[in-house]
Specification:
12 strands, binds S-adenosyl-L-homocysteine, alpha/beta, ten-stranded mixed β-sheet, binds iron/sulfur cluster, DNA polymerase, domain 1, TIM Barrel, disordered N terminus, disordered C terminus
Length: 392
């Protein structure tokens, strides 16, 4: 059962679709200073004003320029006249029985993305999107069946975090509008994963800039050790990502032979397993404390044999790694089934014996189609059913 709030009950944080003024959300300190200079703030003041603005945006989550009491009244008026503090607008918010939340968000050009929040007892993880759709066509992923519309801007990526913090009451002094299932922790969002829609390394610069804004200790403070980028295997960009962003890394491996990976994760034809693993070995700063997570979706009769498990362990032997077995999350028309639980256990046992702890990821938010690889499917389906309804 889905506890879905009718969209009409939600006051969207901003009316992005009609906005003419640009939003300052997601801008770096340097960009904020440049916008202030454009408004005529004298050069000797821009840094100080940018610092104040930064703090209102990213420490307090303020959504109204006029409330920024330490900024001169005239300047507040100028900011109000020229910019907004809008986040993406909420189209729907769904809360799963397990507390997982999924937001369908509308961007200023009317395009839509999804963001998912996964609460645990002592932490909360926000899964954000990096693109609208995906150019890649992994055969088990629903996002892969949708055409890419475009890359998200850095502001739209940071905007997902800001919006989630608004809805979770995750700003100092704020209370959550709906506290169901939230962790008992000071920070509701402790971790961010780039595992929503899109291939983040195909939107490298914007994702990197967004991560830098999010990581700033005097702001959102979601540091690079608490941020994980998941890639399908854009091998040449992996070491560069390590140098320029240095977040934790997850690799969507899913197969241990090139012939199979070519069909599951077609980018493998460009950068096969050997090349991908070599790029992983070159990821800066790897150690037992900073391991790469290898994701492996469990597809019945396809990649789930004990021989596959042994080969997986052999392939990763010299890389500081974690292994994450993901039970396949079905979507309408998917050409695969999830492996039987018994088979997952057999597979996990081989992985366990090789020294990898608790490798199976429990699926979250399946009842609201918020689990890995299900994003956007329900919203598209709902829309289709609306379109197909007979006219009266
Ligand atoms: N594009 C990036 C990040 C988004 S997908 C990537 O591919 O890594 C996040 C994870 O969910 C990836 O490991 C992806 O392979 C996996 N995934 C996609 N569809 C899935 C499905 N239907 N069931 C389970 N996992 C899936
Ligand atoms: Fe794109 Fe990742 Fe889905 Fe592959 S698994 S289609 S890369 S979102």
């Amino acid at each position: 059962m889905t506890l879905s709030l009718p969209s009409g009950e939600l006051a969207p944080v901003g009316k992005s679709e009609t906005a003419q003024k640009p939003s300052l959300v997601g801008l770096s300190r340097t960009d904020l200073a440049a916008r202030l200079a454009d408004l005529g703030v004298p050069e000797r003041q821009t840094r100080m004003r940018a610092r104040q603005l930064w703090s209102w945006l990213y420490v307090r989550g303020e959504t109204d320029f006029l409330a920024m009491t330490d900024i001169a009244t005239d300047l507040r008026g100028e900011l109000e006249a020229n910019f907004t503090l809008e986040r993406p607008a909420i189209v729907t918010e769904q809360v799963s029985l397990d507390g997982t939340r999924k937001w369908l968000l509308r961007l200023s050009d009317g395009k839509e993305i999804e963001t998912v929040y996964i609460p645990e007892e002592d932490r909360g993880t926000l899964c954000i999107s990096s693109q609208i759709g995906c150019t890649l066509t992994c055969s088990f992923c629903h996002t892969g069946t949708q055409k890419l519309v475009r890359n998200l801007s850095a502001g739209e990526i940071v905007g997902q975090i800001m919006l989630a913090r608004d809805r979770l009451g995750d700003w100092p002094g704020a209370t959550p509008p709906d506290p169901r299932g939230l962790p008992d922790a000071a920070r509701k969002i402790s971790n961010v994963v780039l595992m929503g829609m899109g291939e983040p390394l195909y939107n490298f610069d914007n994702v990197r800039d967004a991560c830098a804004v999010a990581a700033d200790g005097a702001g959102l403070a979601i540091g690079k050790r608490r941020t994980t980028l998941s890639t399908s295997g854009v091998a040449p960009e992996i070491p560069r990502w390590g140098e320029e962003a240095g977040t934790m890394l997850a690799i969507s491996l899913h197969a241990v032979r090139d012939d199979l990976r070519d069909t599951l994760v077609p980018i493998n034809k460009k950068w096969p397993i050997k090349e991908l693993l070599q790029a992983c070995r070159n990821y800066p700063g790897l150690s037992n404390a900073k391991r790469i997570t290898f994701e492996y979706v469990m597809l019945k009769g396809v990649n789930d044999s004990v021989a596959d498990a042994k080969e997986l362990v052999r392939l990763l032997a010299k890389i500081p790694a974690k292994i994450n077995l993901i039970p396949f999350n079905p979507w309408p028309g998917a050409p695969y089934e999830c492996s039987d639980w018994e088979q997952i256990e057999k597979f996990a046992e081989v992985v366990n014996r090789a020294g990898y702890a608790s490798p199976v990821r429990s699926p979250r938010g399946r009842d609201i189609m918020a689990a890995c690889g299900q994003l956007r499917s329900e919203s598209i389906r709902q829309r289709r059913s609306v379109q197909l309804a007979p006219s009266t």
